[in-house]
Amino acid sequence: MPFNGADAISVDKLRLHFSLQPLRHAIVSAPLKSRVREAAVLMALEELNGELQLILTTRPTHLKAHPGQVSFPGGKVEPSDLSPTHTAFREAEEEIGLRSENLELLGQFPTHRTFTGFEITPVLALVKDPFEIKIDPGEVAECFRVPLHFFMQDKHRHIRQFQRQGHSYHVVFIPWEGRLIWGATAAMIDLLCRHLKDGGAI
Fold first, then answer.
1. Neighbouring-strand partners of residue 108
2. Residue 101: inside a domain, yes or no?
3. How many other C-beta atoms can be found within 10 angstroms of the C-beta atom of residue 125?
4. Separation between Cα atoms, residue 194 and residue 201, nearest integer Å
5. Is residue 68 part of a domain?
6. How many domains does the chain have?
7. What's the CATH code of the domain at 106?
């Protein structure tokens, strides 16, 4: 059940899609390094006014890793974490006040490696009920939502090719209301859109 950019994607349609199409895509990543830091992020979809919205954050400029960039709630896997899903859910509660019991897990995409040495597992989930955003200013500068149908339109996802360390990579850029979503976050959004549009085929 693929969707096109003009489709209205309801929660029920999304559940059905992911019950039929496991999140099994590969994602273009940086070369494997001998030492990586494992991390997980939460791709949370929330239905507001009958429309699915993707929850995003902006990182504070004082952070060492990816300062000022648009990202998903998430962070490094801690020794006490039971799984990447545990990490993503825990970080979302710490960063924006989205509690794990208010999330319905849909699945995980394959890990995405970054040039900065992270191996990130994207975890996809639905927000069950409305919640009050409570930002941790040490981790998040702002939290905002973007309609999923905006990302689903190919014209909003710009792909450029870059050379690095002798390899060619596609980098996704998505402008949104004065912000620029790019890097791993944009790659994961592009992956989600392709998964929804083509029914799981790359």
1. 123
2. yes
3. 24
4. 8
5. yes
6. 1
7. 3.90.79.10
Residue span of the structural domain in which 53 resides: 11-197
Answer whether residue 1 is part of any domain. no
The whole-model pTM stands at 0.83
What the block records as the tokens of 95 is 């960063």
Interatomic CA distance for residues 5 and 152, integer angstroms: 5
160 is a domain residue = yes
Distance CA 151, CA 76 (A): 26
The token duo for 74 is 């998430």
> Residue 12 belongs to what H/E stretch?
helix 11-20
Q: Enumerate long-range contacts of 162-171, CB under 8 Å, 24 or more apart.
A: 164/115, 165/31, 167/31, 169/28, 169/30, 170/28
Length of the chain measured in residues: 202
- pLDDT the model gives residue 200: 43
Do the beta carbons of residue 161 and residue 169 sit within 8 Å?
A: yes
- Mean pLDDT (10-residue bins), the chain, 202 residues: 60 74 56 73 94 92 70 92 93 96 92 81 95 93 94 90 68 91 91 76 35
What pLDDT is stored for residue 64 in this prediction? Answer: 63
Alpha-carbon gap, residue 163 to 61, rounded angstroms: 27
